[in-house]
Amino acid sequence: MDKFESIKAFTNVVTEKGFAAAGRKMGLSRAAVNKMVINLENSLGIQLLNRTTRQVTPTPTGLAFYQRCVNILADLEEAELAVSQLQEKPKGILKINAPMSFGIKHLASAVADFMTQYPDLKIQLTLNDRFIDPIEEGYDITIRISQPPESPNLIVHTLMKMERILCVSPLYIEKNGIPKNPEELKNHTCLHYGYLATGNKWKLKSQDKEFSININSKFCSNNGEVLKEAAIKGLGIANLPIFIIEKELQEEKLTIILPEYHPPEISVCLLYPINRHLSTKIKLFTNFIQQRLAI
User: Fold this and answer.
1) In sequence order, what E strands does 77-183 have?
2) What's the rounded Cα separation, in Å, for the pair 235 and 291?
3) Cα(169)–Cα(230) distance, rounded to whole angstroms?
4) DSSP classification of residue 217
5) pLDDT of residue 215 exceeding 70
6) Count of H helices and E strands in the chain?
7) What is the pLDDT of residue 178?
8) Which residues contact 242 (CB under 8 A, 6 or more apart)?
9) What's the pLDDT band for 98 if we cut at 50, 70, 90?
10) Using CA atoms, how far apart are residues 148 and 270, in angstroms rounded to an integer?
11) Dist. CA 133–CA 110, nearest whole Å
C-alpha cells in the first residue's frame, strides 16, 4: 500500500464529501479510492469514515486525522515547490496569531496591503491576548509582545522595541495624589497586566538605579485596552505600552507619572516553527512586516 496516496485519497473523500467526487478529482475510479481508504483504515487499525447509502462523513478520530493530514500535505507540497524554485507566487492559507490591541492598530491595515500584493494567498488572522503554543495550535506566524522566547523549535525575529510608561487619570490624582518615587507605588492602587512574567512586581529603572516594586493590585487583565479604560475611570495606575495610550495622553485623559523612571522596554517578536523556514509565504510576510514596522 502506498500510504501517501491513500492519505491523499482519504483527504479528498472528506473534502469532496464522497468517493465518486474524490475519484474524479484524482482521476481514479470510485472503487479504487474506496479500496485505498479501506487499506489506510486497516493499516491504522481504526475507522476513519462513517459510510451510509446517502453520505460519507469522518468519524471524530477521522476528522482529527484529516485536519493533521491536510496540514502535512500542504507543507509537503510547499516544501517541494520551494526547494525546486517553482513557486513564483505564494498560495494557500497563512495562519497568523497576534495580540488584540497591537493587531487592530498595526496589523489590520498591513495585512490588507499584503493581501493586495498577493491575491492568491488566503489569510486567517486571529487576535487574542492569551499565550499560545504556535506549534501545538497550528499557526504559521505568531506575533508576541514580550521577551523573545527561547526554543529550538522556533525561529524568532524581533520586529521593534516598545516603550512602556506609568500613567494615571486626573480623577485618580484628585482623589489619591501621585507617588513621588517608585517606593511610594506600594501605597497606591495599580492596574496589573495579568500575563506579566514578573507577577505582581513592577520593575523600574532610572539613570543610576533599578527598582523592583511589589504593587498593590485590585484589578488585572490580559488586555491593555481594558487596563487603559480602567485607568481613565480613576481605578488606579497603569503600566502600559505607549502605543495604546498615545491618544489619551494627547487628550489629557491620562498623564504620565514618574517620568524619570522607566519600565523595561518590551519586544514585538515574530516567530514561526522551524519546519516552516522554507515557506515562501512566511518569508514574504516576515519581510513585509519588518519593513512596515521599521519605525
Assistant:
1) 92-98, 121-127, 141-146, 154-162, 164-168
2) 38
3) 9
4) E
5) yes
6) 10, 14
7) 92
8) 162, 163, 164, 165, 249
9) very high
10) 9
11) 24
State the Cα–Cα distance between residues 158 and 290, nearest whole angstrom: 9
Q: What is the grid cell recorded at 269?
A: 517578536
SS3 content of the chain, % helix, strand, coil (to 5): 45, 25, 30
Residue 104 Cα distances to 20, 109, 111, 222, 225, angstroms = 44, 8, 10, 16, 11
List CB contacts of 78: < 8 A, sequence separation 6 or more.
87, 92, 278, 279, 280, 281
Beta strand 210-214 pairing with 201-205: antiparallel
- Rg of the Cα trace of the chain? 26
**pLDDT over 80 (residue 82):** no
Q: What's phi and psi for 3, nearest 5 deg?
A: -60, -35
AA letter at 51 = R
pTM for the whole thing?
0.61
- Flag whether pLDDT at 173 surpasses 90: yes
Greatest alpha-carbon span in the chain: 80
Dihedral sign (CA 38, 40, 43, 44): negative
Q: Which tens digits make up the pLDDT trace of 33-68?
A: 889 989 888 988 989 999 887 888 999 998 898 888
Residue 281's φ and ψ, nearest 5 degrees, are -65, -35
Q: Which amino acid makes up residue 153?
A: N
For residue 260, how far is the Cα from the chain centroid? 33
CA–CA distances in Å: residue 238 to residues 79, 98, 117, 252, 256: 46, 22, 39, 15, 10
CA-wise closest residue to 123 among 90, 77, 78: 90
Which pLDDT band, with edges at 50, 70 and 90, does 186 fall under?
very high
